[in-house]
């Protein structure tokens, strides 16, 4: 079954459910030819290994505390803080506390 993405103008809830952390439930909220919007759920002490994506990204911390390792340094994001990375920049993520973030990826053609 195909993943249901939000339609233009549709309300998108960002709060996590009670079992999201236990199941590492990240959800692609919307996707077009130009961007993808993801509600990223990161359990405490669970790493997302170093990787890179072709497009530019923003990561907005909504809950918890997220560490992003990129450009040879670590940046700690807390609720209401956002990080921007150019496309192709290797980066890894980990959560110091159970965390939820809004990840936007600008897709390249």
From TrEMBL:
Pfam families for this protein? Cupin_2
Q: Which domain of life is it from?
A: Bacteria
SUPFAM superfamilies the record matches: RmlC-like cupins
Against InterPro entries, the record matches this protein to:
Cupin_2 (IPR013096), RmlC-like_jellyroll (IPR014710), RmlC_Cupin_sf (IPR011051)
Q: Where is the Cupin type-2 domain?
A: 42-102
What's the name of the protein?
A: Cupin domain-containing protein
Q: Source species, please?
A: Massilia rubra
| Phylogenetic classification of the source organism | Bacteria, Pseudomonadati, Pseudomonadota, Betaproteobacteria, Burkholderiales
